[in-house]
Amino acid sequence: MNENRDRLRIAVQKSGRLSDQSLDLLRRAGLVFRSSRDRLFLYGENMPVDVLLVRDDDIPGLLVEGSCELGIVGRNVLDEQRLAGADAPAPAELQALGFGSCRLAIAVPDNGLIKNVTDLAGLRIATSYPALLAEWLRKQSIDAEVVLLNGSVEIAPRLGKAHAICDLVSSGATLAANQLHELVTVMRSEAVLASSPRAQNAATAAQIERLCARIGGAQSGDG
Ligand code: ATP
Ligand code: ZN
């Protein structure tokens, strides 16, 4: 742990799809906390553990730099940053948490012009997950162009920015509303507990282990 701290920090999404269930899980794990005035921190009242409320995209970086020992984040975010960071130290996925399930999928317009994965060769695919998509294309030996878009990916085909998209899907309703349908799944994702790649001293390591065991116990009690 950071030498200036004797409390663990766990990073959680501040407001979004994973927020409520992440905090519920921590409460079920036995953590009682009180919010800071600026609502960026939750102070653990019964354990030396504080919760940092942040954008999900910031969680891998906070773990790498050691500002937090643990984080709850989508596997899609964790793996994208690991691949984009090449050989840099990356957070490890300790356990899958069973909520926030979705898939990263390639979707194509309903006009029927793209029927098979091989039809993607030579086309442009818009995504917010360029590293995950590029890795998948490489493994499939498909030579397509990856176009980075950080929002509204699903309208890219209609705007003529791309022929296809690679985006997170849960129900598929957003795709249907944009006259798109799934062609193939690139990866399955859900919320995961991730840990900092930094070396921890024995006391901190033991603290982390205790908290992970509590979280694991709370999760298997989901029913
Ligand atoms: P932030 O403001 O924290 O950056 P965000 O808009 O990037 O939020 P959300 O849309 O809240 O993130 O999604 C958080 C995570 O929820 C995703 O990274 C993914 O793991 C998961 N998720 C589950 N279902 C979906 C879905 N249908 N669309 C997008 N993300 C989903
Ligand atoms: Zn985000």
TrEMBL record:
Record keywords, A-Z: Amino-acid biosynthesis, ATP-binding, Cytoplasm, Glycosyltransferase, Histidine biosynthesis, Magnesium, Metal-binding, Nucleotide-binding, Transferase
Compartmental location: Cytoplasm
Domain ATP phosphoribosyltransferase catalytic: 55-215
EC number: 2.4.2.17
Co-factor requirement: Mg(2+)
An MF annotation (GO) of this entry: glycosyltransferase activity
Source superkingdom: Bacteria
Pathway linked to the protein: Amino-acid biosynthesis; L-histidine biosynthesis; L-histidine from 5-phospho-alpha-D-ribose 1-diphosphate: step 1/9
Catalytic function, reaction form: 1-(5-phospho-beta-D-ribosyl)-ATP + diphosphate = 5-phospho-alpha-D-ribose 1-diphosphate + ATP
Enzyme class, spelled out: transferase
Free-text activity regulation comment from the record: Feedback inhibited by histidine.
Annotated function: Catalyzes the condensation of ATP and 5-phosphoribose 1-diphosphate to form N'-(5'-phosphoribosyl)-ATP (PR-ATP). Has a crucial role in the pathway because the rate of histidine biosynthesis seems to be controlled primarily by regulation of HisG enzymatic activity.
Entry similarity comment: Belongs to the ATP phosphoribosyltransferase family. Long subfamily.
Name assigned to this protein: ATP phosphoribosyltransferase
Organism: Dokdonella soli
Underlying gene: hisG
